[in-house]
Amino acid sequence: MEQIGEYIFPMDNALEMILMFDRTGKISYANAASKQKLEYGDELCGGYISDIFPNTFRKSEKGFETEYLFGTSPQQLVAYRKNLTCFPVEARIVSNEADCDFYLCMANDILEKEYLTREVDRIRREAEEALKVKSEFVANVTHELRTPVNGILGNVREMFEREMDGPTEKSLCIIERCCGDMNKIINNILDFSKLEAGKFTLDPRKFHFRNMLDYVKANHMNKLTEKGLDFFVTVSPQIPEYVIGDELRIVQILNNLLSNAQKFTSVGKITVEAFKTAQVNDRAELFFIVSDTGIGIDEADKDKLFQSFSQVDASISRKYGGTGLGLNICKQLVELMNGRIEVESRKNQGSTFTFSIWVNTCEEEKNSGQLDDVSKALESVAFKEKSGAEASEEAEDIRKYGTPENTEGLKKNLSKLILCVEMENWEKAEMFMETIKQLTEEAPPEVKRIVLRLKMAIQKENYEKAAAGFEELKHFL
C-alpha cells in the first residue's frame, strides 16, 4: 500500500493507472502502471497533470483550469505519453471535497477495447453486406432455375392431352414428378435464405381450420394409399372452426412432416392429431402430433434433424434424397409462430414429431371451444346402468374435469389402462386411452400435456414411458 499523509492508496502494482496531483496540478504519486504506460518512469512524479491530459487540463496562475466534471462517473479522455503520442483512456478523477488539497485520477487504457469495437463493427457490416449479396444471389438463381423447370412442366402437361403409348406416358409422369420435386427444392432454398436473412414475414389471415387439414389430407392420401399405408387425421372438438394465422405456412410444416413420414415409412400407419392446449385472451395454442411407423433414428442423432443441410447420415440422402433443409425450415417457421418443435424416435420403431403454434381466435369464436357431447360409446360404458334424465344429467357431470363423477371415471379407466399395459395388450390400452383423453378435454393445460405424452407412449408401445405417464396423471387425481 502507498500512504501519503493520512491517505492510503492501492498497491503500486494495481492494473489501472493511478495518479495523485495537488491544486497546482503537480503530480505527487504515480503507480507502476502509470509510469509504464505513459513511458515517463520515475520522473512522472513532479510533472503536471496538464502534460498527461493537455486537452482536459490547462496550466494557469492558480494552478490549472478544466471543464472536467470531477466525480466517480467514468469519462473518456486522451492521455499523452512522454514522446507526445496519445491513446484513449476511461478515467475517474475525484477530489478531496473538504479542501481540494489533492485529486486522485484512476484511468484504464481502452485502446484495445476501441480497436476491438471498431473491428466488431467492421465485421458486422461485412457480414450484413455478404448476407445481402447471398440473399440476392439465391433469389436470382432460384428464379433462373424455376423458369426452365416450369417450362418443362408446362410442355409435359400439354403432351398429356395427346394420345401416346404406355412407356411414353410413364416417362412423362416421371418427368412431371421430377419437376415437382425440383420446385420443392427451389422453394426450400428460397425460404431458407429469407429466414436466415431475417426477411421472412408471416401473413396471418382468417381460415377454416378443418378445411385446411382436409386439404393437407387430400395432398397425401393417394401417395400413402398407393404405398399401402394407413392414414388417420383427427381434430379435437375444442379447436375453433375459424382461426387467424398463416395458413400457407402451417400447411407447409404439415406437408413437410408428412412427406418425411411417407418417405421413411414402408409399412404401418401415419397419423396426424391436432389439439387446443391453451387459451390466453384471444390467443390459442394449437398442438400437433405427426406419428409414423418408419425407420426411426437413434437417440444420439436426434439433434442433427433440425440443422440446416443436415441428414442423420449420408446414406439417408443417397437412398431417400432431400437437401436437409425441410426440418430446419419447419423449426424456424414454428418459432416464428411462438411455438416449438420436438421429436421422439427409436431406430426401426418409427418417429413422432410434435409442434405447437399460437394463433388468434376470431371474435365470434372467443366463447366457443367448449366440448361437444362425449361419444355415445363413452356414455354407454360409463352409464350403462343409468337411463333417461338421470343419465343425461350425470353425463354432463362426467365431462366436467374435477367433478367427483369425472374423477371416478378417470380412476376406473386408468386402472384398466395400466392393467392392459402390464399385459402388453396395447390395442385395448389405446381404447381406454381414448376414453381418458375425452374425460380430460376440459382439464388444465398441464394435465392435457401429460395425457398427450401418455397417449404417445401407448401408441409407441413404450412400457417405461407409459408407466411413468400413468403415475404422473394419477398424481393429479
How many beta-strand elements? 16
Kindly give the count of domains: 4
Shape: elongated
Write down the CATH topology of the largest domain.
Heat Shock Protein 90
Gyration radius over CA: 36 Å
Q: Total helix count?
A: 14
Which structural class do you get from the secondary structure elements?
alpha+beta
Strand content: 15-25%
Name the CATH superfamily assignment of the largest domain: Histidine kinase-like ATPase, C-terminal domain
Topology pattern, helix = H, strand = E: EEEEHHEEEEEHHEHEEHEEHHEEHHHHHH
Fraction in helix:
40-55%
> What's the architecture of the largest domain in CATH terms?
2-Layer Sandwich
Taking the sheet with the most strands, its summary is: 7 strands, mixed
> Uncertain runs with pLDDT below 50, 5 residues or more?
317-321, 367-392
The CA-CA distance between the termini, in Å, is 68 Å
CATH class of the largest domain: Alpha Beta
